[in-house]
Amino acid sequence: MRQSQLFTKTRREDPKDELAHNAKLLIRAGFVNKELAGVYSWLPLGLRTVNKLIAIIREEMNALGGVELSLSALQNRDLWQKSGRWDDQVFDAWFKTTLFSGGETGLAPTHEEALTSLMKDHLNSYKDLPIYAYQFQTKFRNELRAKSGLLRGREFLMKDLYSFNDSQAGLDDFYDQVKGAYERIYERVGLGDSTYITFAAGGSFSKYSHEYQTLSEAGEDTIFVSQDKRLAVNKEVLTEETLSELGLKREDLKESRSIEVGNIFKLGTKFSDALGLFFTDQNGQKQPVLMGSYGIGVSRLVGVVAEVLADERGLVWPKSVAPFPAHLIWVPGQGEASAEAADRLYQELTKAGHETLYDDRPLPAGEKFADADLLGLPYRVVVSDKTLAVGKLELKNRSTGETLMVSQAELTSLCFGE
Amino acid sequence: MRQSQLFTKTRREDPKDELAHNAKLLIRAGFVNKELAGVYSWLPLGLRTVNKLIAIIREEMNALGGVELSLSALQNRDLWQKSGRWDDQVFDAWFKTTLFSGGETGLAPTHEEALTSLMKDHLNSYKDLPIYAYQFQTKFRNELRAKSGLLRGREFLMKDLYSFNDSQAGLDDFYDQVKGAYERIYERVGLGDSTYITFAAGGSFSKYSHEYQTLSEAGEDTIFVSQDKRLAVNKEVLTEETLSELGLKREDLKESRSIEVGNIFKLGTKFSDALGLFFTDQNGQKQPVLMGSYGIGVSRLVGVVAEVLADERGLVWPKSVAPFPAHLIWVPGQGEASAEAADRLYQELTKAGHETLYDDRPLPAGEKFADADLLGLPYRVVVSDKTLAVGKLELKNRSTGETLMVSQAELTSLCFGE
User: Fold this and answer.
1) Is A67 in contact with B5 (Cβ distance < 8 A)?
2) Which part of the chain is the Aminoacyl-transfer RNA synthetases class-II family profile domain (chains A, B) (predicted)?
3) Best of B4, B43, B88, B124 to disrupt the A interface by mutation (most A CBs within 10 Å)?
4) Which of A4, A32, A92, A97 to mutate to test the interface with B (most CBs of B within 10 A)?
5) What residues form DSSP beta bridges with B211?
6) Number of helical (H) and strand (E) elements in chain B, helices listed first
7) Contact B96/B106 with Cβ under 8 angstroms?
8) Which of B33, B69, B72 sits opposite A47 (nearest CB)?
9) Are B40 and A72 in contact (CB < 8 Å)?
10) Do B97 and A118 make contact, defined as CB atoms within 8 angstroms?
11) Do A74 and B35 touch (CB under 8 A)?
C-alpha cells in the first residue's frame, strides 16, 4: 500500500485524554481512534494487525477441530435469567437497553448462554459429541473505569471457544489440547517468553481455571512466577494448599505484575444444567453435557503486544502480526532516479504478492524515518541516491536496530521468507 | 468439511415463531439461529456464505481505491448531538444505554458521525483528498416490527463506504464508479437480472439518491420498473417531474414489490459542516469536505439471495456465495466399497484445495438427498454402488436439476473451475 493513499497521519504528541501507554502509541501511529474511554475504532493499519492475529488464532482453533460461527451481540434476556446472570448484582457490567417492541435486551459480555441454548436444537445423542465451536466476536462490558487503553475495553474483540463433551475424560483431554494451542498462539505473536500459564480460581466443577498472563508493569493482576516450571500462580489462589498441590515453594516464586491474555475454564454442567442441554448416552440415559470455555482477548492482545514490545521510538511489531512485514522508504534526492527505483521495487514486490507499506510521500528523510520507527514495521527498506550508488538496499531491523546493505533477493528472503 | 463434524442439524418443520420465508429456510437448513425477532446468529454454513459475500464486496471496494477500517459500535453522543441525530424524534430507531461511569451511549445505526469526526485528525489539505474508507460492521436499529427475517434486522451486518472529495466533479465521478462496482456485486451474487438501480429521494445536496432494488414479493418497497432502460423509480418520487427528467413514460413502467439491497447517496457538506471537517484548498481557503455514503446490507443480501432464488425443496445458492461449491454424498450400499471411494474422493478434493461439504453420515440416501436439496449447494456429487459400477460420478445441478454422469476430472472442472 502506498502511504500517500493511507489516509492516517501520525502524531508527535501524546493524545491529551489517554493514560495508557499502549493506546497513546496506537493512536499516535494511527492504528486506532478513541471514540470513548475503553472504546476504540480500528484504522487501516490496526485492522490489518487484528486480521493477522485472527488468522493465527483461527488456524490453531481449526487444528483443534473447532468449527467457526458468529453469535449475535443483542441477547435474549430469558436465557440469562435461567442461568442467573441477568441480575446486575450477579454480573455487574451489563449494557442493557430497551426494545421499542417491549422488553429488554443486553449486549453480550460473553456467550455461554446463547451457545448452550442454541445447541439444544442440534445435539441429542452421544453420537453428536464432541462439538467444539468458536467465534471472533465483539463483547461489551460496562466498565466503571476504562483507563488501560486496549487492555480493558468497554467494547472489545474476543475469540471464544466452547467445548461440549460427553465425558470428563473427553473434556480433560480437549482442555489439555487447548493449552498446547494457546502456547503456540502466544509464541507466534511474539509473547511466548513473557507469557505464563497461571493457576487461578476455578468454580464448582474444577478447583482451578488457567489464565495466560503476560508480564508487564501495566498489568492489573499480580502473579507469582516459577521460572523453572514456566508457570505462575495468581495471587487470588496463593495459599499453602495450592503451593503444596503444585509442588512449589513460596521462596522460589517471583511476584510480578501481569496482563491476562487468555483464560481457559472447565464449566462442567453449570450451563447445561441451567439451560437444559442434555444428551442421551450409550445406555439411553439423559445426561447434562460437559462444557468448557476458552477465551483470548484479541483486541487486548494487540494492546499487549504494543505495550510490551514497544521502545522509546514507537511500536515494535513481530512479523507475524505486523500490518506489513516491510516498510519501503523512498528518500527524495537529486533528480528522479531514487523515486523511479523505489517505485519499481514497490511494483515488483507487489506483483510477487509481498505486501509492503511504501512511503512514497515527498517528505524529508528524517520525518519519514521517525514515522517508520513509530509505526514499527519489522523491516525498514531504504531507497536513496546513496543506496543506488552502491547498487544495494538498506535494510534495518526495527527490533534489533541492525542495519544491512542487501540485494533485492536478500531483501525478499529476509522480509518475506518464512 | 465432513458433515459428521458439522454440528448443525436440519429441520423438516418450519420454526413456529418465524413469518419470513428467508428466515424459515435459513433456520431449517441450519445457516442461522434466531436469538430474538430481527436478531440472528450465524451458524457455520451461514458464516461461510457471509464471508464469501464479504470477499466479493471487499474486492470491489479495493478496486475503487477504498481503504478498510472498522469503527466501534458504541457511539459518542456528543457527535450525534452536533449532527442533530441523537434525538429520538429525528432518528427513531436508537438503542441507547447508560455508561456506569456517567452519561449515555448508543449503538451505531450508521457511521457518518464517527467517521467524519475522526477524519478531522487525518485530513488537512486538498493534497490529502480524495479519501475512500469502508468497513464491514454490525449496525443496530431498534425496529418496532422485525418480521422479515434477515431482510430487516435489529442487528445486521453492513458494508458502508464513505467518500471524501475536494470538488463536486470528484464526488460525481466517484459516485459513478460506485454504480459500476454495485452492478458487478449484484451480478456476482446471482441477483443481476432481478436488481434495478432505482431513483429515490435525495436530500439538500442532491435531488435523487439511488437505491438498488431486487424484485420480490417479500419486499417492503414499491418501485416502477423500466425494463428497456434497466432502471426503476421508487414510488416516493414517482411524479410527472421525475418522469420527464428521466425521459420515462408512466405507461412503460411496471409496478413491482422489491427489496432494497443497496443505497448510494451524495451527502454533500451536510456532515462536514455539522462536525467541522474542512480542508485547505489550493488557494489556501478553508472549505468543507464533500462527502458521499454507499451502503450494502450484507446480512440482508444473504436473506435476499435465500428468498429470491430458493425453490420448494430449499435453498439455491449461486456458486459465488455458496458455503461450499459442492456437496459430496456417500450413499451407503453393499460392503465398504462406496464409503472407501467417497472418502478417497473427499481427500483428493481437499488436498487439491477444493472445499467440499462431505456427507459421510450413515443415513439413508433419501434423507441425505432431502438435506442436500434444503442446504442448496450448487453441485451434488453422488458416490454409490451404482456410480462405482459404471466408473463415473453422478453430478446434479441444484439450480437446473440437470444430472450428468461425469469423470473426476470433469467434476473438478465443473464444480471448482472459474
Assistant:
1) yes
2) 38-318
3) B43
4) A97
5) B198, B263
6) 12, 21
7) yes
8) B69
9) yes
10) no
11) yes
Q: What CATH number does domain A326-416 carry, 2.120.10.30, 3.40.50.800, 1.25.40.20, 3.40.1010.10? A: 3.40.50.800
The secondary structure of residue B2, as a DSSP letter, is: B
- Rounded to the nearest angstrom, the minimum Cα separation between A117 and chain B is 10
A-chain residues within 8 Å CB-CB of B36?
72, 74, 76, 99, 105
A371 contacts: CB under 8 Å, gap ≥ 6:
A10, A359
Each of the 418 residues of chain B gets a pLDDT tens digit; together they read 999 989 999 999 999 989 999 999 999 999 999 999 999 999 999 999 999 999 999 999 999 999 999 999 999 999 999 999 999 999 999 999 999 999 999 999 999 999 999 999 999 999 999 999 999 999 999 999 999 999 999 999 999 999 999 999 999 999 999 999 999 999 999 999 999 999 999 987 889 999 999 999 999 999 999 999 999 999 999 999 999 999 999 999 999 999 999 999 999 999 999 999 999 999 999 999 999 999 999 999 999 999 999 999 999 999 999 999 999 999 999 999 999 999 999 999 999 999 999 999 999 999 999 999 999 999 999 999 999 999 999 999 999 999 999 999 999 999 998 7
Contact assessment for residue B303 and residue B26, using Cβ atoms and an 8 Å cutoff: yes
- CB contact (8 A) between residue B33 and residue A95: no
Rounded Cα distance between B54 and B320, Å, is 11
Alpha-carbon distance values, B171 to B61, B73, B112 (Å): 16, 27, 16
Q: B14: buried, middle or exposed (CB in 10 Å: 19+, 13-18, 0-12)? A: middle
The H or E element that residue B383 is part of is strand B379-383
Q: Which of A11, A33, A69 sits opposite B41 (nearest CB)?
A: A69
Distances (CA, A) of A338 to A1, A326, A372: 18, 18, 18
CA–CA gap between residue B14 and residue B19 (Å, rounded): 9
Per domain, the residue ranges of chain A are: 21-309, 326-416
Q: Give me the architecture of the A21-309 domain, per CATH.
A: 2-Layer Sandwich (3.30)
State the Rg of chain A over Cα.
24
Buried b (16+ CB within 10 A) or exposed e, A289-307: bbbbbbbbbbbbbbbbbbb
Q: Is B189 exposed, middle or buried (CB count within 10 Å of its CB: 0-12, 13-18, 19+)?
A: buried
CB-CB neighbors (< 8 A) of A98 in chain B: 95, 142
The answer to whether the Cβ–Cβ distance between A73 and B155 falls below 8 Å is yes
Provide the strand spans (E) within B130-194. Answer: 131-140, 155-165
A376 closest CA partner among A332, A300, A321, A414: A321
Nearest chain B residue to A29 by CA: give it: B122
Residues of A in contact with B9 (CB under 8 A): 121-122
Cα–Cα distance for residue pair B86/B95, rounded to 1 Å: 11
Residue B99 phi/psi, 5-degree rounding, is -85, 130
What is the Cα–Cα distance from A181 to A402, expressed in whole angstroms? 32
Contact A39 B70 (CB under 8 A): no
Query: Which residues lie below 8 Å from residue A418, measured CB to CB, with a gap of 6+?
Result: none
Q: How far apart are CA B106 and CA A34, in angstroms?
A: 16
Which residues in B lie closer than 8 A to residue A76 (C-beta atoms)? 35-36
Whether residues A99 and B142 touch (CB distance < 8 A) is answered with yes
Residues of chain A contacting B33 with CB distance shorter than 8 Å: 118, 121
Position of cell 480542508?
A: B279
Give the C-alpha distances (Å, rounded to integers) separating A299 from B54, B72, B99.
21, 12, 21
Q: How many CB pairs under 8 A join A and B?
A: 157
Using the beta-carbon criterion (under 8 Å), do A75 and B123 form an inter-chain contact?
no
